[in-house]
Amino acid sequence: MLELALRHRFPGPGGFLLDADFASPTPGVTAVFGPSGCGKSTLLQAVAGLLRPDAGRVALDGEVLLDTAAGIAVPAEKRRCGVVFQDARLFPHLSVRTNLLYGLRRSPRGLPGPGLEEVVDLLGIAPLLPRRPAALSGGERQRVALGRALLSRPRLLLLDEPLAALDAPRRAEVLPYLARVRDRFRLPMLLVTHALDEVDRLADHLVLMEAGRVLAAGTVEALSARTDLPLLAGRRDAGVVLACAVLDHDAARGLTRLGFPGGELRVPLRDEPVGTALRVRVRARDVSVATEEPRGLSVQNALPAELEAIEPAAPHEAMLRLRVGGAVLLARVTGDAVARLGLRPGVKVWALVKSVAFAGTPNPPAAG
Amino acid sequence: MLTPEEWEAVRLSLAVALRSVLFGLPPAVLVAWLLARGRFPGRALLDALVHLPLVMPPVVVGWLLLVTFGLRGPVGGLLDGLFGIRLVFTTAGASLATAVMSFPLIVRAVRLSLDAVDPGLEAAARSLGAGPLDRFATVTLPLIAPGILSGAITGFAAGLGEFGAVITFASNIPGETQTLPLAIYSATQTPGGEAVAARLAAVSFTLAIAGLLLADLAGRRLSVLLGRPPR
């Protein structure tokens, strides 16, 4: 369990108050998500010990790293929090190899953890070892920074918008490595980001922040189904995240069947083996509803559902909460459609899912 | 080309300038670091104090040294009484006066390079388990090495030419404290000494130019070595 309670005031014009409090399960990846300037990076700095908050408490699995009330503040160099910064911060005067070994050489003796070779293999950075950071691309730098943090034998990995400084191709290059690191080492990770696809891809737990405060915290799946969080529900790519499993493949028709707690989805053929856990995001704008069982449709997925609630969204739009078995889907429809179809809570409808976005494979279920 | 006496003045100048840099450099790096990274009351005052020799008449600096480090001065008396060290009218005294005069030059050069070091790198080293001294030695110091080197060379080149503070504090004793500029001054005061003055001035000019070129070259070389594109 990572417990965190922080209060910090930045004085002066544009100053703001950070007042955040949450706890998230470990091991696992907790994403702190929010717009720029919401205080999420400050929060990460305070966990790392690089910023001393006015008041607060940080504890990891019962071990107290900071408790201003008790006068405890473990210095950053003793906290064993590996940090991957947005700008990599590789030491320019050292080779990639020496950069990688910097933390390892300073880590307490006798701690278990991966060796240089294992990390280098995992991150695919072997050819870079003799180079200087100036000769690396942005994506390569982030991979080396990730390796350097991993090798310092951290008890917690802190990722401060690790992909935000990269262009789209570089992001796509580095993201899978973050997932590999998550799957290989059962390290608690705190990911600060303002990119929802990183959350979908990597995080188990989500903490939503705005203007220095925590709006909501919970599993990614649970928060994605909430309509009262404009930070999520107001987005163009708003939609629920579903934990699915591959049921079977139909190569002849080019379809894969996915099972989720409320039913099944047919999606274009996937190459994951049967039984693989997959996480998908069903965007609200990709779901429409029908009051009768539709016929003669190109859409593959028509799921019987019960309309639970109608929430106003943008002007002349409504967000529908649809109960599908044990799961919830969101659908964004026009206000006119709501009136025309006579939609009201409790009616039976068919949810038509036009497409789903694949978010990647979720973390293998944590023990306990 | 040069007479033995003139060579002696050149040798003495080099020795004095070298010593002033050797002894001045460590405190200059420390002060530069305090000024660049420190947050303490009196920082502005320290900054002003360090820069005083740049703006005060060198004679005043020499006189202050005389008052402080003279045999009857508070520090000078103590040094003489306890260790038998006399600074006035000695080569060591000339080095001290030179060191004080070139101190702000070195501090400025080091501080400029410190300001160019991203504090984020030190924070990164911290998160990787490096304590304060470790961070300074393995991250900060290598990255400011070009600044330290160029500061040292500039300080050395400037030290070769220090006149006012040296003549006031250490006097103008041939073979002891008569450095190049003092020898040039003496020559101009001697009837028929124009040729000597011209020769020594030429030497002085050559040394200064060589020093400045060397500082630039060394800075570039080191920058490349440290993995940064030369400016």
Can you tag this structure with a few keywords?
heterodimer, A: 368 residues, alpha+beta, Rossmann fold, OB fold (Dihydrolipoamide Acetyltransferase, E2P), 2 domains, 6-stranded mixed sheet, 5-stranded antiparallel sheet, 10 helices, 23% helix, 36% strand, globular, disordered C terminus, B: 231 residues, mainly alpha, MetI-like fold, 78% helix
Task: Provide structural commentary.
The complex is a heterodimer of chains A (368) and B (231). Chain A is 23% helix and 36% strand. With 368 residues, chain A is of the alpha+beta class. Chain A has two domains: 2-224, 3-Layer(aba) Sandwich (Rossmann fold), CATH 3.40.50; 239-360, OB fold (Dihydrolipoamide Acetyltransferase, E2P) (Beta Barrel), CATH 2.40.50.100. In chain A, strands 7-8-9-3-10-11 form a six-stranded mixed beta sheet, sandwiched between helices. In chain A, strands 2-1-4-5-6 form a five-stranded antiparallel beta sheet, with helices on one face. Chain A has a five-stranded antiparallel beta sheet with strand order 14-13-12-15-21. In chain A, helix 3 (96-106) runs parallel beside helix 5. Chain A is globular. Residues 364-368 of chain A have low confidence and may be disordered. With 231 residues, chain B is mainly α. Chain B has a single domain (4-225), classed as MetI-like fold (Orthogonal Bundle), CATH 1.10.3720. Chain B is built from ten helices and no strands. The interface between A and B is medium-sized, with 30 and 22 residues. Chain B: One of its GO terms (cellular component) is plasma membrane. Chain B: Residues 10-218 form the ABC transmembrane type-1 domain. Chain B: This is Molybdenum transport system permease. Chain B: It comes from Muricoccus pecuniae.
